[in-house]
Write a structure and sequence with these properties.
The chain has 443 residues and is α+β, with helices and mostly antiparallel strands. Helix content is 41%, strand content 14%. This is Carbohydrate ABC transporter substrate-binding protein, CUT1 family.
């Protein structure tokens, strides 16, 4: 879906803004270090005249509704600043953004994922926000340090997390209760998880597979590597060798032979990452791999109760991970205003209450505390509880993936499919992947 909205037009006046914390939903004033971007002293940028910023993000209709409401809140406080909005589903989003970048007409404010942040930073497509962070016009002091680091490329802050998420298992709790199979325990090993999935398949008499085949899922592979002391990347190079990848493929080959996973055709449909095709939604498997912040969207697609569980392996293999970022266009005519809008989206209490957990846990720890208890949607509450339970168990955060990461992701999926189809053995597929992936990172 793609939608272009009429501008959220400024009223034309230009009063100075004071984002007073006590005015936010009647909230009490917090001590220093409270909600970012809400201090009495901090005013909006002093540009004169009406300003219209173009904004572009990916997501569904619910995200569009919430984001538009928050941008209207900003305009209410800054009547001379309006927004021209465009949004669409994730399919084709980055292709469209790449076309805009090639033509030099990128929107002022964009949503990016970690697959594109480093590339857009090194190509100087996104705005360097470091000066606004340095003087706290963009106040990131209440972000977890690892989450802040995950928006830095070559020492520059080029994006601010729009939310925090984690790779997770999404479970069909209704199905598991009916089959009498307990949910997998936190901290189980990957072979134990495969054994659990086989148990699910047997309990359903083969009608439902235990798990999605994650052999081509970079999130699961990255977590598996970190649980063994490795990593997906070391700087701008791969952080693993062909032997490790072959072992990963062999884990899933054994899972397929034991009927822990469904048919290759079903797996390939789900590999598209389209929510409606996820096996936990279609009923083809009891567990899928997804981002924790996607739970509400997945839940809306099924009548079964869905829940979240940590991935197999050490919980500390997880880290404070940005679900996506807000970033500015390097060529914007209003960089200070863009930075201020990002500050509002990520550090304002009232904005956080409206956005909820659609993009994940609010990046600001202060805003998380402020909005605690205001979320009423059951699936959002489950996602928030999952994130809170992980908070004190996370490991150190790496930097965002290097330029070439989208190609590496695609190559991993392609290699996994060749093994699933029998077109290549695990070692041959792993070796070919290494050569092609290293070339993608070098280019």
């Amino acid at each position: 879906m793609s939608a272009a909205r009429r501008p959220l037009s400024p009223a034309g006046a230009a009063p100075g803004r004071r984002r007073v914390l006590a005015a936010l939903l009647g909230a009490p004033v917090l001590a220093a270090g409270g909600l970012t971007g809400c201090s009495e002293e901090q005013a909006a940028p002093t540009e004169t005249g009406p300003i219209e910023l173009s904004v572009f993000w990916y997501g569904g209709a619910k995200r569009a509704e919430l984001t538009e409401r928050v941008l209207r809140l900003y305009t209410d406080r800054n009547p001379r600043v309006g927004f021209r909005i465009t949004w669409q589903g994730v399919d084709g989003y980055h292709d469209r953004l790449a076309t805009q970048a090639a033509g030099g007409n990128v929107p002022d404010l964009i949503q990016l994922d970690d697959g594109m942040l480093a590339e857009y930073a090194r190509r100087e497509i996104v705005l360097d926000l470091s000066e606004y962070v340095a003087d706290h016009r963009l106040d990131v002091r209440t972000l977890p340090p690892g989450l802040l680091r995950y928006g830095q490329v070559d020492g520059r802050t080029v994006g601010v997390a729009a939310g925090q998420t984690a790779a997770a298992l999404v479970l069909n709790r209704t199905l598991l209760r009916r089959l009498g199979v307990p949910e997998p325990d936190a901290g189980i090993s990957w072979p134990e998880y495969v054994a659990w999935a086989r148990r699910v398949t047997r309990a359903s008499d083969g009608r439902v597979a235990g798990t999605m085949d994650a052999s081509g899922d970079y999130r699961a592979f990255w977590h598996w590597l970190r649980g063994r002391g490795g990593d997906l990347y070391r700087g701008r190079q791969l952080g693993f060798d062909a032997e490790a990848l072959a072992e990963w493929f062999e884990l899933w080959r054994d899972a397929r032979s034991g009927r822990a996973t469904p048919s290759a055709a079903l797996v390939e449909q789900a590999d598209s990452d389209v929510p409606a095709r996820q096996l936990v939604v279609t009923g083809a498997a009891a567990a899928s791999f997804a981002w924790s912040h996607q739970l509400p969207e997945l839940q809306r697609l099924t009548d079964a109760e869905l829940g979240l569980a940590v991935l197999p392996g050490p919980v500390a293999a997880q880290w404070a991970r940005a679900s996506m970022y807000w970033a500015g266009f390097h060529g914007t005519r209003h960089p200070a205003v863009v930075a201020d809008v990002i500050n509002f989206l990520t550090g304002n209490g009232e904005a956080g209450a409206v956005l909820g957990h659609d993009r994940g846990l609010n990046p600001s720890l202060a805003v998380r505390r402020y909005v605690e208890g205001t979320i009423t949607e059951p699936a959002q509450k489950r996602a928030a509880a999952f994130g809170a339970a992980l908070a004190d168990r996370l490991g150190p955060a790496p930097g965002p993936p290097p330029q070439g990461h989208p190609r590496v992701r695609a190559l991993l999926l392609e290699a996994a499919e060749t093994v699933r189809s029998g077109a290549a053995g695990t070692w041959a597929a792993a070796s070919r992947f290494m050569a092609r992936a290293e070339a993608a990172l070098a280019g």
